[in-house]
Fold this protein.
Amino acid sequence: MTQVKICGITNQEDALCVAKLGAAALGFIFYPPSPRSIVPDDVRKIVNALPAELVKVGVFVNESADEVKRIVEHCGLDMIQLHGDETPAYCRQFPAAQIIKAVELKNEADLVNASGYDVAAILVDSRSAWLYGGTGKKANWELACRMGSKKPLILSGGLNEENIANAIKDVAPSALDINSGVESKPGKKDSAKLARIFDIIRQSNVESNETQLIFARRERL
């Protein structure tokens, strides 16, 4: 099955539900303007209740490198997702194998710029106004597909029950990042939606490429 990360986790109930359904990873957003933001102390409590094999990802937007490192250590996170305007030079302050860089692809120049990041994966998302993600809008699948030929690809942006099968078929990403498409409201996941979308993903019968597994436990920072 294509690897799945459920992002925007704000409570233990949702985290345990996601783990039970078979997600490879879940994400915690450390960006106060987001309706799905969460504080480090709460994340630490949730992480301590989760299976060890589940990859825990911290999502940051234009945060200082020192603060990112502090939060990752405090919460016991496995990977870092940089969802802002972070440059390749900024990303080099961390081990490449632990970094996911989120980008919006609108044109050829964006594709070239994204290719310049030395990271574990590129996450293609959509942005809107001050929101760096979680907009519920579909990303550019054509450019995402081209990105996937250059770097390990995580597809995000408006994924839901209606389009997830086509996303897997048309883009063939290494992993999927799902957020607003499985919510009852911002910050609260819908267990029924989660169950249905995992069923659809499994029925798509896409075999994981073992050499392209993005969400795997790594030595922590």
